[in-house]
Amino acid sequence: MSVDQPNLQNIKKKTDYIIFQRNVLTPDTWHSMDYWRALGKVITIDLDDHYPGLPPSNPAHAFWILNKPGLPEMPVDLLIQAMSHVDALTSPSKIILKDFEHLIPGFHIPNYTRRKWYEEVSPKPLGAPDIEFGYRMQGEGQPIVFEGKHREGSEGWIVFGWGGSISHVDSWVYSGAVEALGRIFDLYPNTRLKFCGHEARLDFLLDKFGDKVIRQSGVKPEHWPYVVSTFDVGLAPLDLRPVPSNTVSGAEPWEGGEFSYDERRSWLKGVEYLSAGIHCIVTRSATYQDLERHVVLIENGEEKWFQALKDMVENIGSRKKLAAEKKTWALKKYSMEANVRVYAEVYERIGNMKRTKGNTTLPGVNWNRIEYETKT
Questions:
Q1: Angle between the 316-334 and 302-314 helix axes, to the nearest 10 degrees?
Q2: Domain of 34?
């Protein structure tokens, strides 16, 4: 990113805040940060993943932990250096902010859903056929059509649903949810797991269930609420094996491993389920603790998951009714549109903090950590 590029300068000179995301590992990026800070801009880094502790199952592990690109220093060390060139860190995870609090002031910005996307969908009625979504090509020059079709023979199913990126392997392997679902499939022949996305590395665990596991390919973000609305129950298992804040080879851990990698995830899955009017079961964790009154929080382990799944099946009618009734309320509380003021207030606080230290900094002079009380 060249700070001398005229078009870039013309765009950024109109802004008050410039937000960088994870790939801030090079001196030219740091120079850009210093340049715009010197001109009075508020510069922040936003992190939504625990890069110091990425597990081997995460595709980004090779980059961040093994340094496959061959950067001159370990990527996490370069990330830490970048933090001395900005005013604050933002994250949807309070634990990530805790990881770096000795280096930089942190500000919590939760992930929310888009009301516009979720208010258009309604939960699938109990016993209605499952719907599989996809895209259809039209004629040349015509837009691609998003459409759904009933899945043959799916009437009367109770569908447990999950969808996510290819970084959730350990969430399923180490939670006990897979083993519990196997028992549920045996006990209730009309139950299914709807596994959404492109993660194929769990096939070694799921293939044994045969047609009890149904698939849904990936869709665009604005179409994801339609998929969620076909779940009878949403699932969000997490891996709770603790990891230290800093697991780079040879580095001293910043804390002793109180929280897991998955506990650095945001609460978004739970909020998505609530926004779609879907009841859900999630691993009791720092990730979902703030949703305790609105979701089913359970300890990990096969038996705990089995009992929670069984209770949901036995009471599915009343659970679906309660979740659907809460949908409107959830969109008023957990949508982006309902929380514009939250975003604005956080960045206003960051700007006020910068002004208390002086409105500008000099290029090449790095900012040092000061004590600042943050409210989350």
A1: 100
A2: 6-112+337-356
Q: Exposed (0-12), middle (13-18) or buried (19+): which is 221, by Cβ within 10 Å?
A: exposed
For the chain, where are the E strands, in sequence order?
A: 17-21, 42-46, 88-91, 106-108, 131-136, 145-150, 158-163, 191-196, 213-216, 233-236, 279-283, 296-298
Q: What single string gives the DSSP state of each residue in 147-199?
A: EEEEPTT-TT-EEEEEE--TT-HHHHHTTSHHHHHHHHHHH-TTEEEEEESS-
Q: What angle do CA 343, 91, 176 make, to 5 degrees?
A: 125
Same domain, residue pair 317 and 278: yes
Q: How far apart are CA 176 and CA 307, in angstroms?
A: 12
Q: Which residue shows structure tokens 């790939």?
A: 23
Q: Considering the domain boundaries, does residue 86 fall inside one?
A: yes
- The CA-atom distances, in angstroms, between 67 and each of 1, 20, 59, 75, 297 are 22, 21, 12, 7, 37
**pLDDT of 373 over the 50 cut:** no
Contact 163, 196 (CB under 8 A): yes
Which residues fall within 8 angstroms of residue 97, CB to CB, at 6 or more apart? 89, 91, 106, 107, 108, 374, 376
Phi, psi of 197 (to 5 degrees): 115, -165
Which residue in 3, 76, 16 sits closest to 44, CA to CA? 16
- Give the three-state DSSP class for 57: coil
**Predicted TM-score (pTM) of this structure:** 0.90
pLDDT at 186 over 90: yes
pLDDT at residue 360 tops 70:
no
Average pLDDT of the residues in 270-277: 98
Place of tokens 């999630």: 282
Domain count, the chain: 2
Burial of 180 from C-beta contacts in 10 A (0-12 / 13-18 / 19+): buried
The answer to whether residue 52 is domain-embedded is: yes
- Classified as helix, coil or strand, 12 is helix
User: Is 365 part of a structural domain of the chain?
Assistant: no
Task: Please check whether residues 56 and 154 belong to one and the same domain.
Answer: no
Whether the per-residue pLDDT at 368 is higher than 50: the answer is no
Token match 């023979």: residue? 153
Q: Which residues, other chains included, contact 305 with Cβ-Cβ below 8 Å and sequence gap of 6+?
A: 175, 176, 177, 179, 180, 181, 237, 281, 298
